[in-house]
Design goal:
The complex is a heterodimer of chains A (about 260) and B (about 800).
Chain A (H helix, E strand, L loop, with lengths): L21 E6 L6 H10 L3 E6 L10 E4 L19 H11 L7 E4 L1 H8 L6 E3 L7 E9 L15 E8 L3 E3 L2 H9 L3 E5 L11 E5 L5 E4 L30 H15 L1
Chain B lengths: L11 E2 L3 H14 L3 E4 L2 E4 L3 H6 L14 H11 L5 H10 L2 H4 L4 H9 L3 H4 L2 E3 L6 E6 L2 E9 L1 H6 L1 H18 L3 E11 L7 H19 L3 E8 L8 E11 L14 E6 L9 H5 L20 H16 L5 E4 L4 H12 L3 E5 L12 H6 L5 E6 L4 H10 L4 E8 L4 E5 L2 E6 L1 H5 L15 H6 L15 H13 L7 H4 L10 E3 L6 E4 L7 E7 L2 H6 L1 H18 L3 E10 L6 H21 L3 E7 L3 E2 L2 E2 L3 E10 L16 E5 L10 H5 L12 H16 L3 E6 L4 H13 L2 E4 L2 H7 L3 H6 L6 E5 L4 H10 L4 E8 L4 E4 L3 E4 H16 L1
The chains are: A alpha/beta (about 260), B alpha+beta (about 800).
Chain lengths: ~260, ~800
């Protein structure tokens, strides 16, 4: 990780070499963290492209982020309506493609959408304490072999904000055992399990490692001055935590390295 | 449904649901014309019919009007009003909408303004929200409003729709909402009904605000038994825009189309403004639950994005949100602010409940609705935006040049009024007011003279216990249990949020330009002295904003009081407004908007007068903001300001069950100077932490600074006690104003001292930050381990509510 900039120097110098990588950020009705995810891509050095749920065109992006929010108000089951958006067909197709499995990241509501779309197993139910919870959460990166985690050391810990109402990850025991056996638990809650998630699971991937979903919000820990007050990498200035940046640089680096 | 006419059981009168049963008889006999519209049957009371039946008895009292007000309506119209007109006047002339009791006093906010104060004001009082210039082509709009009565009746929906309403005010100005805040006041923490309201209100604010993608950046949580039957839920929203995007609520241009869009109109919130929010609670009346609106945050989020897209394409000529008094308010305000009139066909309104009567449709306060005026050439583009966001809309009519607001029901005229008489020319009362006879006795009852005041902690052991008791008390304890249920990150621009002194949001990503916001009030101070209490709220909000390093620029106020029909309460209101307007003038900060909430009383017992002041400040660059806690080992800790023996109305006195005497003295000149010093120190990088001293005094300020980042300090207060002539307890617990604590890097100490010295502001070094000792160590007196302090501070709310 790069050293966190001092107060007054908000933007980590992006690697100009990454700007060729184009990451789409999907907006559904009720999406909230789309501009934040796009900003994270920009801060990491990439080019963000906004995608509309009702379109049928991925605009040739190299990767997709399904951001957080309350799409369709979460009035049915979180993500249950969004998965039927026309663009989700393109995303699913891309994610399963053989020659270039499209890197897809689902954050919070995006993770819920990906499970509803069966790109990832399991589901999220209401937090075990029944409240919306916003906190700076410590996670362990269990698998650094995915498209979205290669810039971290395996076993590295990071601090990123968590904020949701329906964040309790559940799946049947067989699925959970499979996820563990195949090293597909990508992020695990450390110190505190904030919502009763099975086996402290905060994020998982598909078998190929191109599709990752997590409940915490790495896009809110990318810009010093506007992130958490702490970092797992050492002392930082006020709201100086940028531990989530590696998620975005991981995918950009992979794309630019010519995985396509 | 009444059995009044067996042959048409479905026939319903055009009278709101709540009062229908009682008045169906008298009114029904006269209403002989039965209209059938899309399967609906009503006795339609047309304008013609009204003119022909002058003696029909009207349910004005049940709709909240007074006899003289009804007579005035008849005078204005030159005939009796139709049922629909009566519905409109009753809600628009309610206290909540018309400010009829407060108007004569509120004028001071507009009168006591210097040219200098107008310098940055782009839109002042009177519009949906005031707009202040931030420079670089940016403008900011913010406003605070109450949603008190609905929250008592139905906490979740009441609080949720409070957020929804204030956010729509911000959208109506053309701005993108960027943050919300919520000052909350509940009854006694251990009262059996308090948990109901706390759980509902907090979940409602979170459920609605979080779903809108608006960070919640601050507020207050206060517990006091005076709010038991009348909790206060105030909601603030702030939005930003470019200057050219400012939109106003008016309907101009003959032939322009009037459109209603967003959620459908339902039967919720009928009488919200008049029956619910403009009367005291009273056990003898029927439940007011139907008058509470029901919120749909998803619909509102879509509405935000949809409106911003309309603004971007310049597709609307005028826009107005639907809040209190619903369509009655939107049509009459748009028409009266415009240059002509308006014709509306009410059967075009999309309904959730097809059985609603015209009067109910006009009064419904269903949420997530907006009304806009669109020129004919933009109709197609407007519809395309609606289609993109899947928002329902219906064209209701058009702008005319008649000067009349005409509302039709299936072609028949049911409303024909001069819109100004509905929206702006309502009754104005010079309510009698007088200083209560008990006020002198109250002020004479000082804490020092009471039994608890004569037995104050003095030993090391007692002082330590006192600090722990204070920091665990309901009003001073950690509010994390509440604020952790709110999203403070969304948007990615939150530079400070609770528990710091003010919330700070970045406006411009390139330059770091941003705003700070704080809300403050102290009901106890204001009860002891309303004039001074209002100024103390102003002073604290000013201090909080300046403490973070922002320059205070504008005020929005939410005046929560009891019944204006009580001369004691009316005096409190008059005094508070006088105090606040005088104070704003002295500080040079204009009031740009706000809200008055009266009738916050149960039976004859009013709440403490609670004027909540929201202060907006400006940062050139939010990177300069100062947090409320210290972190760096060895930094010097300075106390700015002087401490007097001012324990009356304090948190300590409150903990001992005493309320009497006089609140702390106000010195706005000192506040202004302190503010300047804090802002300069922040700009020049002299200080790394700053925290204002307010409720709980120096003891609370030092505790909070240490707890902010869990870093201890060694404190020595002997010299200050000597200089100010007070004992250690008084220095720690007195609530003297115009004070702050700062931490200063060693390398900056000389500069800092020179600056304070040059401006003649009292300051004294009182300690050193200590990252090793793990305690707030009052040297040679007593020491409070941080772990113990933290536990006491954080355990209170979970104990009662988790």
């Amino acid at each position: 990780m790069t050293e966190t900039p001092l107060i007054g120097d908000f933007s980590p110098a992006p690697d100009a070499g990454l700007s060729g990588a184009r990451i789409g950020v999907v907006t559904f009705p009720g999406t909230l963290d789309d501009r934040d995810a796009a900003r994270a891509v920009r801060i990491a050095g990439g080019t963000a492209v906004s995608l509309w749920h009702g379109d049928h065109d991925l605009q040739g992006v190299d990767g997709v982020i399904v951001p957080g929010g309350f799409s369709y108000g979460d009035y049915l089951r979180a993500g249950a309506i969004s998965r039927f958006a026309p663009l989700m067909d393109q995303i699913s197709e891309g994610a399963k493609a053989k020659h270039y499995p499209l890197p897809v990241l689902g954050i919070c509501n995006g993770f819920q959408v990906l499970t509803e779309a069966h790109l990832l197993p399991g589901s999220m139910i209401k937090n075990n304490h029944l409240h919306f919870l916003c906190r700076d959460q410590r996670l362990r990166v269990e698998n650094n072999a995915t498209a979205w985690t290669s810039q971290y050391e395996a076993g590295a810990e990071i601090v990123v904000p968590l904020k949701n109402q329906d964040g309790q990850y559940v799946a049947d025991e067989k699925t959970l055992d499979e996820l563990e056996a195949e090293n597909r638990v990508v992020f695990r809650y450390v110190d505190v399990n904030p919502n009763g998630s099975r086996r402290d699971i905060a994020g998982i991937s598909n078998a190929a490692g191109n599709v990752v979903g997590l409940m915490p919000h790495p896009e809110h820990a990318v810009e010093a001055g506007f992130g958490p007050d702490s970092s797992a990498f050492g002392d930082v200035a006020l709201r100086g935590g940028t531990d989530g940046l590696g998620i975005f640089t991981s995918v950009l680096t992979k794309i630019v390295a010519g995985a396509k | 449904m009444t059995e009044m006419n067996p042959t048409s059981a479905a026939t319903r009168l055009e009278t709101p649901a709540e009062v229908r049963n009682e008045h169906v008889q008298s009114f029904g006999q006269a209403a002989d014309a039965v209209e059938r519209v899309e399967g609906r049957q009503f006795n339609i009371d047309t304008v013609d019919h009204a003119a022909q039946s002058p003696d029909t008895e009207m349910p004005w009292a049940e709709l909240g009007l007074k006899r003289n007000e009804f007579d005035e309506v008849v005078k204005v119209l030159g005939r009796r009003p139709t049922a629909a007109e009566l519905a409109m006047y009753s809600v628009m002339w309610s206290e909540h909408c018309s400010y009829k009791s407060s108007k004569v006093h509120l004028r001071q906010f507009g009168d006591k303004v210097t040219e200098d104060m107008k310098k940055h004001m782009l839109v002042g009082i009177g519009e949906n929200a005031g707009v202040t210039d931030l420079g670089d082509g940016w403008a900011v709009t913010f406003k605070i409003e109450s949603h008190n009565s609905p929250t008592m009746v139905e906490p979740y929906q009441g609080a949720a729709t409070g957020i929804g309403g204030i956010v729509r005010d911000i959208i109506s100005m053309g701005a993108r909402p960027v943050a919300v805040m919520d000052p909350l006041r509940f009854g006694a923490i251990d009262h059996p009904d308090t948990a109901r309201v706390v759980h509902g209100a907090v979940a409602g604010i979170g459920g609605y605000g979080n779903s809108l993608g608006l960070p919640n950046i601050g507020g207050e949580v206060v517990f006091d038994s005076v709010y038991q039957g009348n909790p206060l839920v105030n909601a603030l929203a702030v939005g930003i825009m470019r200057h050219e995007d400012i939109r106003l609520a008016n309907a101009s241009g003959k032939g322009n189309k009037v459109v209603l869009f967003g959620a459908r109109t339902g039967g919720d919130g009928i009488g919200g403004a008049s029956i619910l929010s403009s009367e005291s609670f009273d056990d003898t009346k029927p439940s007011k639950r139907p008058a509470v609106q029901v919120g749909d945050p998803f619909a509102e989020k879509v509405l935000i994005e949809c409106c911003l897209e309309l603004f971007k394409g310049s597709l609307v000529e005028g826009i107005q949100d639907l809040g209190a008094a619903g369509i009655s308010c939107a049509t009459s305000e748009l028409a009266s602010n415009g240059d002509g009139g308006m014709d509306v066909e009410l059967t075009s309104v999309l309904l959730r409940d097809p059985t609603l009567t015209p009067g109910e449709i006009l009064m419904s306060e269903s949420q997530e609705r907006m009304m806009a005026v669109v020129s004919p050439e933009n109709v197609e583009a407007f519809e395309a935006v609606m289609a993109k966001w899947a928002v329902e809309y219906s064209w209701l009519g058009e702008v005319t040049d008649t000067g009349r607001l005409v509302i039709k029901w299936d072609g028949e005229t049911i409303v024909d009024v001069d819109p100004r008489t509905v929206a702006h020319e309502g009754p104005v009362y010079n309510r009698p007011y007088a200083r209560p006879e008990w006020q002198d006795k109250l002020q004479a009852d000082s804490f020092r003279a009471s039994a608890a005041g004569a037995d104050l902690p003095a030993t090391a052991e007692d002082l330590k216990a006192a600090v722990l008791e204070l920091m665990a008390s309901p009003n001073m304890c950690s509010k994390d249990w509440v604020t952790n249920q709110y999203d403070r990150y969304v948007g990615g621009n939150t530079a400070l949020a609770m528990p710091d002194d003010a919330g700070v949001v970045r406006v411009d990503e390139q330059t770091g330009l941003g705003v700070a916001l704080a809300t403050d009030a102290n009901g106890r101070y204001t009860y002891l002295d309303p004039y001074q209490g209002a100024q103390l709220a102003l002073a604290e909000s000013y201090r909080n904003v300046a403490t973070t390093g922002a320059v205070p620029m504008a005020v929005s106020d939410c005046l929560n009081f009891g019944s204006p029909e009580d001369s004691d309460v009316m005096w409190q209101l008059a005094e508070a407004i006088r105090g606040l307007s005088d104070g704003c003038m002295e500080l040079g900060v204009p009031v740009t908007g706000g809200n008055v909430s009266l009738y916050n009383q149960t039976g004859s017992t009013p709440i403490h007068p609670t004027p909540v002041v929201a202060m907006l400040g400006r940062f050139d660059d939010v990177a300069r903001r100062t947090p409320s806690g210290w972190r760096e080992d060895g930094q010097a800790i300075y106390l700015m300001g002087t401490t007097r023996d001012e324990l009356d109305g304090s948190e300590w006195a409150n903990l001992r069950g005493h309320l009497g005497g006089k609140p702390p003295a106000v010195d706005l000149a000192a506040e202004k100077l302190l503010g300047e010093l804090l802002i300069n120190a922040s700009r020049d990088g002299m200080i790394d932490a700053a925290h204002d001293i307010s409720e709980g005094g120096l003891a609370a300020a030092l505790s909070e600074m240490a707890l902010r980042f869990g870093v201890g300090a060694r404190i020595g207060l002997g010299e200050v006690c000597e200089r100010d002539g007070v004992d250690l307890f008084t220095l720690l617990f007195s609530e003297s104003q115009a004070r702050a604590v700062v931490s200063v890097a060693r390398s900056e100490e000389v500069r800092f001292k020179d600056m304070c010295g040059a401006r003649g502001f009292p300051f004294m070094r009182i300690g050193v930050v200590d990252t090793e000792n793990g305690a707030l160590d009052f040297q040679s007196e007593f020491s409070v381990p941080l772990a113990e302090l933290k536990e006491a501070h954080e355990a209170t709310l979970p104990k009662y509510f988790a």
